[in-house]
Amino acid sequence: MESNINMAEFVQEFQDDVWEDASVEILENMHIQDIGTILSRVLPDEAMRILQMLPRKRWVEVFPYIALARQTELLELLRVKDGRYILTHLYPDDRTALLEQLTPEQLESFLRLMSTEDVKLALKQLGYPDESVGRLMNTHFVAVKAHWTLKHALEYIRAHSLRGETVNTIFVIDRERRLKDAIELRDFLLGDLSDRVESIMEDSAISIGASEDREEAVRLIKHYDIEVLPVVDHHQVLLGIVTVDDVLDVAEQEATEDFHKMGSVGVLDLSLSDASPALLYRKRVGWLVLLTFVNIFSGAGIAYFEATIEAVIVLVFFLPLIVASSGNAGAQSATLMVRALATGDVQSRDWLRMWGKELLVSVGLGVTMALAISWIGVWRGGADVGLVVALAMFCVVIMGSMVGMLLPFILSRFKLDPATASAPLITSIADVVGIIIYFTIATTFLL
Amino acid sequence: MESNINMAEFVQEFQDDVWEDASVEILENMHIQDIGTILSRVLPDEAMRILQMLPRKRWVEVFPYIALARQTELLELLRVKDGRYILTHLYPDDRTALLEQLTPEQLESFLRLMSTEDVKLALKQLGYPDESVGRLMNTHFVAVKAHWTLKHALEYIRAHSLRGETVNTIFVIDRERRLKDAIELRDFLLGDLSDRVESIMEDSAISIGASEDREEAVRLIKHYDIEVLPVVDHHQVLLGIVTVDDVLDVAEQEATEDFHKMGSVGVLDLSLSDASPALLYRKRVGWLVLLTFVNIFSGAGIAYFEATIEAVIVLVFFLPLIVASSGNAGAQSATLMVRALATGDVQSRDWLRMWGKELLVSVGLGVTMALAISWIGVWRGGADVGLVVALAMFCVVIMGSMVGMLLPFILSRFKLDPATASAPLITSIADVVGIIIYFTIATTFLL
Questions:
Q1: Which residue range or ranges hold the CBS domain (chains A, B) (predicted)?
Q2: Structurally, how many domains does chain A consist of?
Q3: Of A103, A127, A151, which residue is a domain's last?
Q4: What is the mean pLDDT of residues B67-84?
Q5: B411 and B294 part of one domain
Q6: CA angle A101-A103-A109, nearest 5°?
């Protein structure tokens, strides 16, 4: 036991480009997931060396746990017949994950290694939209017919549960392969063997369409606490299954996407450590330039109030404080809303209730911040400047919070991703409006 | 099937305070998870009315799917003997989740409803640290002894697998209850019934300590693709189990925490829709005020360069553009790093490699942004202003990116949470440094 934990720690911290200690004996005692991690981290040639220490049968087990980019590299380094062996024996969903990130040329050469039937299956799965359930599902599954006897069904299951996939839930289909029910293996075992399957059906299966968003699969599996979710087409024909460990990965990827969007970074298809500088540049430059255009309005706002600034130069001292507080308050409320909308904690129709709550919160925050800054205002510029900065702070904190709270709702209303209301975007918008509010108040009271 | 999907949609959009249609028949055909959702959303009295339509046996099934705050309300509304029934029959992990969010007074009155043995168990679980595996684990599990025969073990499992918990993985312990292995039920069924359990052991179980962070449980379950993770104490004694659906919820909560931190919001123990305005105020005001102190340095920076500003007032126009770009670039790289550190994609020892990559990316971004702004500079203030703003933009974009990239690493180095390097904090720091860089360059070239 202990050796396993140490091994896991060893693997997690494994950083070397080569793995001197690799030997057939050590590999035999390692978990395939750990071998996969190491094969992803060492240099390509080293990975080949380690892979070849493994019996070919284990390649197929290890492969899904290797980083996708490395899987491709290995397949290109392996002899044709070894590549064919792996592509033939991978689970369809693991194969689809590998194929979907290839260049068209690579895809063509890989498809040439596969049987016609596998190619047809793979192309069908790749035909489903990006990030859909169809791309994610495993098409290897066991289903029994409703008119069979339990005895026949159990024999069929025993004969067809290949490669150690655990079968706890048994899917029942009719003669047209339409999903009729999902029955626990336990209930099967408790029934009379001569009964027909349909006699123990409850017609209570939760299912999902293949073209639906994979986030919906996460939601269903989480909500209904199920281990295997059946995937169907428009006619309820059973196409595949999605398991809880699939959605664990999806949930992490989706959260990462939302994170990146909140930081105004485009969606990375690769992990940060695999992404090239050029890719990172492309994913960041668009938003940076776009936000500059928003900030030009801030500049224009300041230029418009040049006379006020020249008359009361101390106002510039408070500019970053006031403007930044507005942006910070906005970033806070945008973050809360975007995440709550993503997890389903809040729905877009809740906007009015959330708006009321946000108003209360932001008035409280505005009063606190105004009190905090008024002292500095009085100290730096006298009572009238103190009043102006306090009033401006009160207004911009409320305004920033409102922008941050409402923009995600507006985006989701127009079927856009609420996470587009990123912290930098909210900050930039709050800047523009904050500058205008601040100098308008200053001009009114001080000139 | 279809009716189920519509029901799920109905429940997701369910918003009413009362549920007129509630009837014994409808409730009978609903999934317990959906009933739980509705009981969480209607008014407390209404929830009581619906609950009482259910047979008492179903209460225990539905209860874990009701929002925690509502569970408490219902227990307080129910008659003592009904409350006792629920608290006695809830799974220990569900009960712990309920008990850990009570006030001391509530806890005392609830503990009084429970048997001495249950109280002992509950207090033991509450004794583990917040967000530890011990709080999360289920202490109802079935384990067999290594020296038993397979026949005896299977009989024991059949007799002790209560309340429909599926048993796919069987934990093997020795005479001192120390975990020896985790064996698939399948391997059990294939073995010879007269063999001893130890004869089919492989000693390959992955386990976790009860006081470890629950995030580590998520990592292990995800990495090793396991459905049930055994929890042990310092002597490897088996204490409980954590299942993949538990960690699915934990992973979501942890991602939400990181989100909130990235937006400079304190950790909310409640969902956003349950949180009161007062709680939200408290979770936000600290960071807002703290960030103001950082921004005072921005103000001071501007005040320090007052002479430069008065001499070349057009510089103020570019102030928000340059300063905001620095903050935006910093927010981008901080977001990328914080998330990569959280998912384990990047470890803190990778900082040098990531720094090199970030330098390349930020030089590229800096050149692009400098070119973009130089035109506006020339147009608004002539060639020399164009040069100054371009140079300043180049420097601040690189500087902002460096701050955003390095701060999460520094925090993780000092065992602090990298997510503390929130977008608003990075923006505020980048503001201060950006202002100093900008006006230093301007003073050098223009005065």
A1: 201-257
A2: 3
A3: A127
A4: 89
A5: yes
A6: 105
Q: What is the pLDDT of residues B264-275, one digit of tens each?
A: 888 777 778 778
Closest of A19, A224, A51, A246 to residue A132, by C-alpha: A246
* ipTM field: 0.79
Tell whether B285 and B426 lie within a shared domain.
yes
Residue predicted with more confidence, B167 or A393: A393
Task: Kindly report the backbone phi and psi dihedral angles of residue B281, in degrees, each rounded to the nearest multiple of 5, phi listed first.
Answer: -60, -50
For B72, the token pair is 């408490």
B335: nearest CA in chain A? A263
A108 CA: distance to closest CA in chain B (Å) = 30
**Residue B291 domain boundaries:** 277-446
Compute the Cα dihedral for A179, A184, A186, A187 and give only its sign. negative
CB B125 within 8 A of CB B134: yes
For A36, nearest residue in chain B (alpha carbons): B223
Chain A residues within an 8 Å CB radius of B262 = 259, 262-263, 335, 423
The reply to whether B170 and B101 lie within a common domain is no
CA atoms of B320 and B10, how far apart (whole Å): 47
Residue A12: predicted pLDDT = 65
E-assigned strand segments in A216-356: 228-232, 238-243
When mean pLDDT is compared across A17-21, A87-91, B47-51, B346-350, the lowest value belongs to: A17-21
Say if residue A116 is in the same domain as residue A152: no
Residues of B in contact with A281 (CB under 8 A): 361, 364-365
User: What are the percentages of helix, strand and coil residues in chain B, rounded to 5?
Assistant: 70, 10, 25
Q: Does some domain include residue A118?
A: yes
Q: Which of B343, B340, B320 is nearest to B427 (CA)?
A: B320
Q: Please identify every stretch of chain A with a pLDDT value under 70, giving residue numbers as ranges.
A: 1-15, 161-167
Residue (of B26, B24, B139) closest to B90 by Cα position: B139
Using the beta-carbon criterion (under 8 Å), do B338 and A259 form an inter-chain contact?
Answer: yes
Q: What is the pLDDT of residue A165?
A: 57
How many CB atoms are closer than 10 A to CB A213?
16
φ, ψ of residue A265 in degrees (nearest 5): -115, 140
Residues B229 and B370 in one domain: no
- The closest of B310, B292, B438, B436 to A313, measured between CA atoms, is B310
Q: What is the 8-class DSSP label of residue B237? A: B
Closest CA to A436 of A406, A392, A403, A397: A392
Question: In 3-state terms, what secondary structure has residue A49?
Answer: helix
What SS3 class is residue B245? helix
Degrees to nearest 5, angle at CA A218 with A214 and A224: 135
* Position A187 in a domain: yes
- Whether B309 and B416 have beta carbons less than 8 Å apart is answered as no
Contact check, Cβ <8 Å, B327/A303? no
CA distance A241 to A169: 11
Residues B311 and B391 placed together within one structural domain of the fold: yes
Enumerate residues 6+ apart whose C-beta is below 8 A from B46: B17, B18, B19
Indicate the SS3 state at residue B103: coil
A51 token code pair: 């892979």
Angle at A431 between CA A381 and CA A309, to 5 degrees: 35
Both B343 and B392 in one domain: the answer is: yes
- As given in the structure block, the two tokens for residue A351 are 């906007």
Q: How many other CB atoms sit within 10 Å of the CB of residue A151?
A: 13
User: What pLDDT digit, counting tens, does each position of B103-144 carry?
Assistant: 888 888 888 888 898 898 888 888 899 889 999 998 888 899
In a domain, B229, yes or no: yes
Cross-chain Cβ contact B13/A347 below 8 Å: yes
Residue tagged 């990965």 (tokens): A249
Residue owning tokens 């033939």:
A88
Give me the residues paired with residue B183 across strands. B170
User: Cβ–Cβ of A263/B331 closer than 8 Å?
Assistant: yes
Residue A363 is assigned to a structural domain of this protein? yes
Question: Of the candidates A203, A221, A244, which is a domain's last residue?
Answer: A244
Q: Which among A183, A207, A204 is positioned nearest to A195, based on CA atoms?
A: A183
